[in-house]
Amino acid sequence: MRNAEVAGVLYNISELLEIKGENTFKIRAYAKAARAIEGTTEDIEKIALEKRLKDIPGVGESIAMKIGEYLATGRLQYYEELKKQVPEELHELLQIPGVGPKTLQYLNKELGIKSVEELERAAKEHRLRRLVHFGETKEENILKAIERYRQRSTRIPLGIALPLVKEIVEALKKSGFIEKIEPAGSLRRRKETVGDIDILATSNDAHAAIEAFVHLPVVKDVIGKGSTKATIVTREAIQVDLRIMESKSFGTSLQYFTGSKEHNIKLRDLARQKGFKLSEYDLEEISTGRKVYCESDDGVYRKLGLLPIPPEIREDAGEIEAAISGKLPQLVEYKDIKGDFHVHTDWSEGSNTLVEMATAAQKLGYEYIAVTDHSKALGVAHGLSEERMLAQIEEIHKLNDTLSDFHVFTGVEVDIKADASLDFPDSILKQCDVVVAALHTGQKQARREITGRLITAMENENVDIIAHPTGRIIGEREAYDVDIDAMLDAAAGTGTVLEINAYPNRLDLSDVNSRKAKSRGVKIAIGTDAHNTGHLGLMEFGVDVARRGWLEKEDVMNTRSAKEVRFKD
DNA sequence: GCCGTTTTCGGCCCGACTGTTTTCAGTCG
Known about the structure:
With 569 residues, this protein is an alpha/beta fold. The protein has 23 helices and 19 strands. It has a 6-stranded parallel beta sheet. Strands 2-4-7-6-5 form a 5-stranded mixed beta sheet, sandwiched between helices. It folds into 5 domains: 3-85, DNA polymerase, domain 1 (Orthogonal Bundle), CATH 1.10.150; 90-150, DNA polymerase, domain 1 (Orthogonal Bundle), CATH 1.10.150; 156-244, Beta Polymerase, domain 2, CATH 3.30.460; 249-324, DNA polymerase, thumb domain (Beta Polymerase, domain 3), CATH 3.30.210; 334-559, Metal-dependent hydrolases (TIM Barrel, Alpha-Beta Barrel), CATH 3.20.20. It binds one DNA strand of 29 nucleotides through α2, α4, α7, α9 and α14.
């Protein structure tokens, strides 16, 4: 599939046009087409071949021609010429807050500025303040913005942001000045990483609520404080905004501040088509000026004649169309989860015993876990020898005899070695209920080798699940070079289940890849990769990814009861 | 550049903020 590749070209064109200062709507048209293609599960080459490109919403005569040219020749004349016209370095300047395309063009024309360094020098030499439409303040602000840009914090993993927000929300509730409170933004959409955190609330005393917020123990700095909004920075250098809204506007506000931006643009467009103007304050009927207020953000969707769209899929990736046609997925929920398929014990690198892990899982209301300690090749993790593996199986059988209403599946996280062979012979694997295979070594190998190793593993009838299928670690390590489409096809062909590893710095498969897997009929198992009893609680993060990937109950193995759990026959 | 139960031309999401302006353009979220 070359969908991502084609979308990438269109995104680049959109950005180049932006730097050139072209018509905003033309810029948006390219970005819109790119998004539509990115979100299409059908192969773009197939669509092009069947001359159906213009059926894609946002793709018209001109863009269809360009896609055709690019797919056929691997090049696009228009794109090449654009790249020649726009110096590469200019791009970075758009990252400076306050510098947009117009300013960029102007500075380039007047002062020949092409890079952040040149802009900084011009500001320090006070050459900016002499320009028309510029002044002392703007010049100083640009210097500050460059400073901020250089120290910009990377996005925060959801695993860190979520507990922090819970702490803040609880503390604010205790203050007594808060009525309704809800975190919004990418955190509410459960994106794997979040930028700044936005919290919305209603209050009987906005002033007191703001004061309570800026004096919370987590606060390190107060950046801004007004009558209805305050911005703080926490000890962990995370920026948090609190906005106090009027109660009657809470639904529209929550809808607006939850985003995504792209989702909001399309929703407002749809509202307009239906004769309404949607803002964060209200839904206004254009012909009469009558204002409609919504208690909840679900209410906003209902008033527009849509089914409520869960926050996790508000990305303008087909969810609005699905809501219109009544075909929204019934997303899997945490309460559907009956067990965990990736659990370690102190037999390998875990810190709790078999019994402790089983008891903790039972307390969570689960019916089962699969114990999947490492195999011997992973020396650093005290991988099990074949003898110890058999001994563990024996012990689990004994444990099961003592348990009621709970089952421990025997299992292993078997290493896929650099030569594509598995770390245990079939004779051992056969004795495990659940075989999870994973690639831990040789991650630098070429795409062909890596993909081949994974496919070979999946072709083994004893291998049930591929753990953390791309190997990425958020903020630390890129995914290994695997051909995702080939892997998904092999999973579909062999009936191998792919994991969503719920560990917050893995979340692998990702949301996008999970959705791709679903479109090919590949089943998913969520595994926490727990190394202690506390880690079992990470399941929620895996469910978040599944929901963002549009997965429904039947797509997820963990929703099956212990008796219904079946992998390859 | 796209698109059409108001339109094949004239729209295209909305509102706040900022700094530079005396009425608004650019940028942001």
